[in-house]
User: Which sequence fits this backbone?
């Protein structure tokens, strides 16, 4: 087993260090190799996704990723911005299926911005399509160097695009996830989110998801417009089981859902291709405002390492060990600043990682 470690920018290096600590404590004989990605890679190599980094990621069984991005790169031409690193990895490795669980850990229900009774026990899985949609359609704008220059242009556009096979494969992923969850006692329901009342891509999305759904008679399927879905998520989030949606809507809804759980700092994510190769990263971003202060929450990254063991490295028992260790640490009352409340103990990034290692 070989994994690529790509810490990236902002708090990335600190939180990834803690996840590596946890992986090393498990002593599974995983080979790890690090490389620069994002803004730091641009600074050293002139590109956010240098060829050597892409090669390492492509050849590894899995990628453990921190985060990319910093305001100091806002003026760069788009193709050189740190965000292009993660988009490039998703596209090159064909990581079309993004799993973003929103789980409310019992100990943290009080940290949610919603009433505890609305979120206690919350367990939603957002399945976001990750390599299509307006993210990868033809753009044109006054800063789009790849598309020629439009000096002084007062108009810009992006193209929202989906094809039937792209929708089919992500729909299958969502229905299969719902089946697995049903076997574990969940509702067995897929909610497909689109904007079919306005967008042609969404009409195709709805038709294809409906057709694929016929192959899964044990799973209930319903459809919501994205504006309604955004509203329902804060009105009564526990009505959802699996949500499947396109790249852009999934980006937005997954941030919304994550915050229902009390802290975006707790949530892992997995981006998978058809070969079980995956990129695992916290759902949150690079948080440059708190970088280097040893206050960031490393648990989302540690839990992403657990997902990596489960999804890409075939190590279910080790994944469960990490998840149990995190539960234990939370039950003991240890909290980083983002989830700290009265009656709990506030610890730093590295202390939290040490606590998880000790619990292991
Ligand atoms: C995410 C992020 C990325 C996205 C950015 C950094 C390109 O917001 O992973 O949700 O929009 O997909
Ligand atoms: Mg996002």
Assistant:
């Amino acid at each position: 087993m070989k994994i690529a470690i790509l810490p990236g920018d902002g708090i990335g290096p600190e939180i990834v260090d803690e996840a590596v600590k946890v992986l090393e404590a498990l002593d599974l004989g995983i080979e790890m190799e690090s490389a620069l990605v994002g803004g730091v890679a641009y600074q050293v190599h002139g590109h956010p996704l240098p060829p050597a980094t892409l090669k390492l990621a492509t050849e590894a069984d899995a990628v453990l990723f921190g985060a990319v991005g910093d305001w100091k790169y806002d003026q760069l031409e788009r193709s050189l911005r740190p965000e292009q690193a993660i988009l490039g990895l998703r596209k090159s490795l064909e990581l079309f299926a993004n799993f973003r669980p929103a789980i409310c850990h019992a100990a943290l229900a009080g940290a949610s911005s919603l009433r505890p009774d609305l979120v206690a026990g919350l367990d939603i899985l957002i399945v976001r399509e990750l390599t299509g949609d307006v993210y990868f359609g033809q753009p044109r704008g006054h800063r789009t160097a790849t598309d020629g220059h439009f000096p002084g242009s007062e108009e810009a556009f992006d193209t929202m695009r989906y094809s039937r096979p792209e929708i089919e494969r992500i729909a299958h992923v969502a229905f299969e996830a719902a089946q697995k969850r049903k076997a574990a006692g969940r509702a067995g329901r897929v909610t497909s989110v689109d904007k079919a009342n306005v967008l042609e891509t969404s009409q195709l999305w709805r038709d294809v998801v409906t057709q694929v759904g016929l192959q899964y008679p044990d799973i209930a399927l319903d459809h919501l417009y994205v504006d309604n879905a955004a509203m329902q998520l804060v009105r009564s989030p526990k009505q959802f089981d699996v949500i499947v949606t396109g790249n852009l809507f999934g980006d937005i809804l997954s941030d919304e859902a994550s915050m229902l759980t009390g802290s975006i700092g707790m949530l892992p994510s997995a981006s998978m291709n058809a070969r079980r190769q995956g990129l695992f990263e916290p759902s949150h971003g690079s948080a440059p405002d708190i970088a280097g202060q040893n206050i960031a929450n490393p648990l989302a990254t540690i839990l992403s390492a657990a997902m990596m063991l489960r999804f890409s490295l075939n190590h279910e028992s080790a994944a469960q060990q990490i998840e149990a260790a995190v539960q234990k640490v939370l039950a003991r009352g240890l909290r980083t600043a983002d989830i700290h409340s009265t009656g709990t103990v506030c610890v730093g990034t590295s202390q939290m990682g040490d606590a998880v290692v000790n619990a292991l």
